[in-house]
Amino acid sequence: MTLPPPAIRLEGVGLDFGGAPLLRDMDLCIEAGRMTVLLGASGVGKTSLLRMIAGLARPGRGRIVASDGQPLVGRIGWMGQQDLLLPWADVVHNVMLGARLRGVRPEPERARHLLGCVGLADRTTARPAALSGGQRQRVALARVLYEDRPVILMDEPFSALDSITRARMQDLAGRMLAGRTVVLITHDPLEACRLADTMLLMAGLPATIHPLDVPPGPVPRMVDDPAVLAAQAGVLRRMLAQ
Ligand SMILES: Nc1ncnc2c1ncn2[C@@H]1O[C@H](COP(=O)(O)OP(=O)(O)OP(=O)(O)O)[C@@H](O)[C@H]1O
């Protein structure tokens, strides 16, 4: 990373679909170098918000800017529910895909190092079809880390995984993404309470943002931490009350 991770400011952001406002006059500051977790009912607009931050969609009104005044373009990594690995490329070449697409010299040693960090040192020559869902998501995480972007946007990246693999991925992501500006969308209150420095609930139409209490302690928090479990129950209550 060349510049330190920026905060991201949404200023008066509005978005309409089919003539109805999904977001209206939304102001929000996403903290620099911290993990912000976004929760909310299906269809409230979480992915639309993330896509606008990523520059994949334009706000109908308002603007989204980095706190350092520099463009966000080229500083964002994306990780979604689908790993989008190329089936014909082996694991190490999937990790270096971005370099290949940009015409930049790939760095296989760095890719292998990152695969070691995510626990796949012995699978570098495997094809995606030979991997489990959890292993594939670890490759996707290594690919995001290879890109070394200061801002990482994650749209339900672990939701398709079984609960044990999901807990392991949360540990890994919490450790490996520390210090970056991360926005994570999840429907899982436990995941939110384990990973969030800041927790936000998106609700209503047009949607508004409500901060939620975060349990104490550094990320990733333990799955059986009583404060995490109590916060999880509180988050679920808030979501049920929406
Ligand atoms: N390109 C589009 N054109 C029209 N409507 C859209 C478009 N993208 C999203 N929508 C609508 O906007 C609303 C919010 O969608 P969005 O995917 O942002 O919600 P979400 O909170 O991420 O939902 P989920 O949790 O189910 O993924 C939905 O009603 C959806 O149908």
Automatic annotation (TrEMBL):
<keyword id="KW-0813">Transport</keyword>
<dbReference type="InterPro" id="IPR017871">
    <property type="entry name" value="ABC_transporter-like_CS"/>
</dbReference>
<feature type="domain" description="ABC transporter">
    <location>
        <begin position="8"/>
        <end position="231"/>
    </location>
</feature>
<keyword id="KW-0067">ATP-binding</keyword>
<dbReference type="InterPro" id="IPR003439">
    <property type="entry name" value="ABC_transporter-like_ATP-bd"/>
</dbReference>
<dbReference type="Pfam" id="PF00005">
    <property type="entry name" value="ABC_tran"/>
</dbReference>
<keyword id="KW-0547">Nucleotide-binding</keyword>
<protein>
    <submittedName>
        <fullName>ABC transporter ATP-binding protein</fullName>
    </submittedName>
</protein>
<dbReference type="InterPro" id="IPR050166">
    <property type="entry name" value="ABC_transporter_ATP-bind"/>
</dbReference>
<dbReference type="GO" id="GO:0005524">
    <property type="term" value="F:ATP binding"/>
</dbReference>
<dbReference type="InterPro" id="IPR027417">
    <property type="entry name" value="P-loop_NTPase"/>
</dbReference>
<comment type="similarity">
    <text>Belongs to the ABC transporter superfamily.</text>
</comment>
<dbReference type="InterPro" id="IPR003593">
    <property type="entry name" value="AAA+_ATPase"/>
</dbReference>
